[in-house]
Amino acid sequence: MSNHDVGDEHVLPDGTDIASLPKVSLHDHLDGGLRPQTIIELADEIGIELPSTDAPELAAWFADQSDSGSLVEYLKTFDVTTAVMQTRQGLRRVARDFVNDLGADGVVYGEVRWAPEQHLARGLSLDEAVEAVQEGIEQGIDDVRHAGRRPVRVGQLVSAMRHAGDGREIAELALRHRDRGVVGFDIAGPEAGFPPSLLQPAFDLLAGAWFPATVHAGEADGLDSIRGALLDARALRLGHGVRIAEDIEIGERGEDGTEVVLGALAQWVKDRRIALELSPSSNLQTGAIEAWGDEIEDHPFDLLYQLGFTVTVNTDNRLMSATTITRELARLADAFDYDLEDLETFQLNAAEAAFLPVEDREELTDLVIDGFDEAGR
């Protein structure tokens, strides 16, 4: 059984089942997407004590711990998940489950991000860890195909922890595996106080090798973090990036409508179509949108969408947020009255921003369009 079952609440007013739609996932953490039952079984094998050995209770514990309003507290839940991901068997099992859950969620292309340096406690090398995850991904892809679902394609985003050094070793790791499953690079971990410039050697190496990067920015820190991601890291996408809305000034509503003024940074992000990897449920849990409110209706997602930013919809951490892309889309549709065309736009934005060759992105775009056309008939 996957983490989350999809029910009737994920049906649009026109009767479209959101679960059946083809989706593109750009911001999805491997160590944030474990099945509770898998955690229990892996923990038992290696003798790790858990808050609960009942799968529903453990799932509830993760959701409760994550709903703190603090990214720092939210990140502590990963101590449990990473603990059971320290062996080849554990990594392979988790990656295989993960891809099966993507397939069940209607994902046709996904990028799974994780930090290999956090999975070496039981003797694996960095390369062995990446290879184990790739084995699990390929097994999961086969499972999805044999289950008769839409085929799914999955690439790894290798993350360096921004507080653990200059990241060059992890950048070199990503480049060694660029033709063996790794499609891009990321930096994760505490954002405030750890700007991308601290990992300049890694980003310089990647830029010289023409290897794409996305950077967590504009989640737990503001506009300076986003500037650093774009200028120092040469990021092609922004992980979350929700606080770009701080560079948007909304004036009084006059006869000609509400006056909206974009700052230079926001204008650049919009004009260059730099994708925002938005994760609505997670953004609420971590306090990333506290400047605007604490309900889904307060999320600046719709503001950014209406202004023409390249918004995408993501889960961030399926376990911690008890979510799927299907559920995230349903929440947004309910909050902002989005219809099938809007949901298609979000998937096309993600397809455009995927770390794939342009020909593959065009094929992915056609796959999304065909799936939505079929749903709309």
Automatic annotation (TrEMBL):
One Pfam family recorded for the sequence: A_deaminase
Cofactor: Zn(2+)
Record keywords: Hydrolase, Metal-binding, Zinc
InterPro entries per UniProt: A_deaminase_dom (IPR001365), Ado/ade_deaminase (IPR006330), Metal_Hydrolase (IPR032466)
Keyword Zinc: yes
Single Gene Ontology MF annotation: adenosine deaminase activity
Membership in a protein family: Belongs to the metallo-dependent hydrolases superfamily. Adenosine and AMP deaminases family.
Protein name, UniProt field: adenosine deaminase
